[in-house]
Amino acid sequence: MPLQLFDTLSGQKRPFVPREAGKVGMYVCGMTVYDYCHIGHARVMVAFDVIVRWLAAIGYTVTYVRNITDIDDKIIDRAQQNGETIGELTTRFIAAMHEDADALGCLRPTLEPRATDYIDAMQALIGTLADKGFAYQGKDGDVYYAVDKFPDYGKLSKRKLSDLQAGARVATADDKRAPYDFVLWKAAKPDEPHWASTWGAGRPGWHIECSAMSGCCLGATFDIHGGGHDLQFPHHENEIAQSEGATGQTYANNWLHVGFVNVDGEKMSKSLNNFFTIRDVLARFHPETLRLFILASHYRSPVNFSDTALQEAHASLTRLYQALHNAEQLTTSTASLQASSSVNTFEAQFSRAMCDDFNTSEALGVLFSLAREVNKACQNHDSAQAAALANQLKTLAAPLNILQRAPQEFLQAAIGEAGLSEADIVQAIAERQAAKAAKDYARADQIRQDLHAQGIELADGKDGTTWRRI
């Protein structure tokens, strides 16, 4: 079935038509590497990871570009505060970013350009804009984009230039021609990194980075541009103005934006003390639990982050893994079985959801329906049907990159302050077995109850006793 995308610029859901048949070029705005990634970053990482995986699943070859901003005011300030070089700071947090993304099960981008490697390309782009009358240098040496020279400014965020002018405030010392003009090249300041240029020593503004790097990696026009909802204005708006002003061509054919993450109903903010890094969360919850929490909402909708929401996500994921575990317990066959008509129905439903603007929420609903069918087959001791359904459950979940672990591995995983160790649990089970063998059933029941109180649930089966954390 055809893939439909909601394009932020047009405000419409429409069929996806790549520039080149069978290939997709996608650019996603990445991280400014001066601190650990937070849960808002996690949502963007996971959302576009699933988009890449689904595009590949339906036959596209994807070039996925996600940039790294490794020179910026915040980076300079943080390095000075820490008493370290900018290179030391950015190298450390790039490694941390990769560790977090890997933990969340995200594929590495095809290309991961760093801003400092594209200074020449940025200067060339600024030069083109200056030649075409879109850029000018202020008296203090900064180079600005003349927004009023680009008639379509505001088309992505649906803002009018007249409204921006009316609402703007201009500092007395500001050397911009208009308050809404934005910087392309910053004149060098003492003790800050800088590069030689036509306009004097300096460094690039933030917005010019992505126009230059996307153009170098994907060309003047590419298929999909993505990022967080907060980047629509001014960052993405400014990218359009820069790129289309320079090339005269459409910058990106489709714009995808990931919704905000709120914390207990409020926007995440350090000042509100409700700011959580990915590492904070993964110290207390399984990485796949956080991934499922993110996938449980459509990527464009806002989500509310809370301990309760994560606990519910963990319980939901446990139900899915338990269904796979039940099927494993019923049969030891690993042979690929002929899919029944019901299995094919689930596949069609899942594909329909994912091709509808990557509707992971609806796709997960299909997986839960399928898991219920797995459990029914297990209850009916229909091992062939249970195996076929379980195999389909795991196969369909693959583009979401969930349910790919061995069920027992997930069900027994210890996260954070997990309580009993696996050795303790195994020893308690052995003591319970000994009590049962001695017909001391009261002692056996007490051990079960004690384990349950410490978050361990036992299940007795034909092959012995299994356990999972609850």
UniProtKB/TrEMBL annotation:
Residue window of motif 'KMSKS' region: 267-271
Positions that bind Zn(2+): 29, 210, 235, 239
Cofactors: Zn(2+)
Domain Cysteinyl-tRNA synthetase class Ia DALR: 349-411
Motif 'HIGH' region: positions: 31-41
GO MF term list: ATP binding; cysteine-tRNA ligase activity; zinc ion binding
GO cellular component: cytosol
Keyword S-adenosyl-L-methionine in record: no
Protein name, per record: Cysteine--tRNA ligase
Organism for this UniProt entry: Faucicola atlantae
Lineage of the organism: Bacteria, Pseudomonadati, Pseudomonadota, Gammaproteobacteria, Moraxellales
